[in-house]
# Entry
Amino acid sequence: MRIGVPTEIKADEYRVAITPAGVRELSTRGHEVLVQEGAGEGSAMTDDQFQAQGARIVPDADAVFDEAELVLKVKEPQPEEARKLREGQTLFTYLHLAAEPDLTHLLQESGATCIAYETVEDSDGRLPLLAPMSEVAGKIATQAGAFMLEKPLGGRGILLGGVPGVAAATVLVIGGGVVGMNAAIIAIGMQADVFVFDRSIDRLRELEVAFGGRASTVYSSTLAIEEMLPAADLVIGAVLIHGGRAPRVVTRSDLKLMKRHAVLVDVSIDQGGCFETSRPTTHSNPTYEVDGITHYCVTNMPGAVPITSTFALTNATLPYVSELAEYGVDEALQRNEALRHGLNVRGGQITHPAVAEALGGAAVHV
# Structure
C-alpha cells in the first residue's frame, strides 16, 4: 500500500504522524511511505532520517494526497486538506467531528473513508489511540495551569505547591479518566491540594488506590462542583464522551463563584469544551478572560511537546496502520472491531453513532 504523511498545517502544530522507526516497519513489509519534505522538522526528525529508513520524500502536500491510498495525519484536516481527499482514499487521524459540522460535511463530500484515532475502541472500552495523547495533555494541563496562575500571566499570583506556612493551591480535576488521572498526578507531584471528580464509583476507588490518599476523590454532581468552585485556584476539565460532544460541567453563572483570576484549563475543547465559556485557542495565544477568570483552551496541547508526542502517538498507531496497509481497509475493518469503532465517515455517510447524534442526525451502517 502507498501511505502518505503530509506536514501538519494547523496553527502551532509541530507533530508528525509517523517516526523514522515507523517508516522502517512499514517499508520492510513492502509498503511505500511518502513523507512531505520537512514534515518531521517540528519533532526534530529530518528528511534524511526518514529517507534512510525507506521513505520517499515528496515536495508538497499535493504530492502526498495525489499518490497516497492511506493518508496519515495527527490533527483533523484543515479545509484545504479535506478538499484534497477523494473517493477510494482513507484518512487516519484525530478528527473530533462532534464539534465540527463544517469539516464533517467536507469529509462527506470527499467520499473518502475517515477513521478517527479518538474513537478506536478495544473490547474493554478503552481508547488506545487517544490514551497516549491524553496522558500528555493531562500532564501539560497542570503545567500550563500552574504557569497561568502566575501574576505576570494574568493569574492570581499563587504557587501551586505553596511553601511552609503558606497554603498550597486548590486544584479541581473534573473527570477521572486518562487525562484527569495524569493531571492529578502532576498536581500531586507539585504538592497542590487536589480533588478529582468522577461519576464512576469504581473509577474513584481505583484512583484512591493509585493516589495513595494524596488526593481527595469526589462523586461528580452539579452541586458538588458548585460547592468546591469557591475554593478552587485551578480547575481542569477532563470530561469525555466517546465520540460525542463534551457535556458542560461549569456554566458561565458558575464563574461568579470563583476567585478572581483563577484559571480554567479545558482539555475537552477538541470535543466542544466542558466549560460553557470555553472557545478554542492556540499555543501562540493560549488564554483569554471571561468575568475575571482566565481560560486556557488550546486545542492541541500535546503539540507543545512534539518530540514526546510524536513518539508516543506512533507507538500506539503503528499496529493499526500496519493492519490497514497489510490487509487493505475493507478487510482490516472486518477483522478488527476496534478499527470499526474508529470509522466516522464512509461513502459520504456518518457512521459513528455518537458523532451523528452530536450533529443532529443518525449514523448509517456501511
